[in-house]
Specification:
The chain is of the alpha/beta class and about 110 residues long. The protein has a domain of about 60 residues: HesB-like domain (Hypothetical Protein Aq_1857, Chain: A, Sandwich). The strands form two sheets. A four-stranded mixed sheet has the order 3-2-5-4. A two-stranded parallel sheet has the order 1-6. The radius of gyration is 21 Å and the shape is elongated.
């Protein structure tokens, strides 16, 4: 059995470029506008929190509620002056999604 010799060189990089990361959640302009409207009436709240809850056999249900503080494990998304916090349990299911607000004659989504 022959032994092989492996050599490696390590050098320090002083001017490393930071790569921009993609936000966990993006908001459409209509969603930003609606969240701003909702928070205008609640000055003690700093943003909204998105979470998930288990709903029987059909899987997960999303929740949206006002929040006064950022939780320890919450992911924070700031877009156009709106702060959205994502609960830890919801982070993987919401990663890369887009939040929208649509209003028509039959519903508000």
């Amino acid at each position: 059995m022959s032994a092989s010799l492996v050599r490696a060189t390590v050098r320090a990089v002083s001017k490393r470029k930071l790569q921009p990361t993609r936000a966990a959640l993006t908001l459409t302009p209509s969603a930003v506008h609606k969240i701003k409207q909702l928070l205008k009436d609640k000055p003690e709240h700093v943003g909204v929190k998105v979470g998930v809850r288990t709903r029987g056999c059909n899987g997960l249900s999303y929740t949206l509620e006002y929040t006064k503080t950022k939780g320890d494990s919450d992911e924070e998304v700031v877009q156009d002056g709106v702060r959205v916090f994502i609960e830890k349990k919801a982070q993987l299911t919401l990663l890369g999604t887009e939040m929208d607000y649509v209003e028509d004659k039959l519903s508000k989504l």
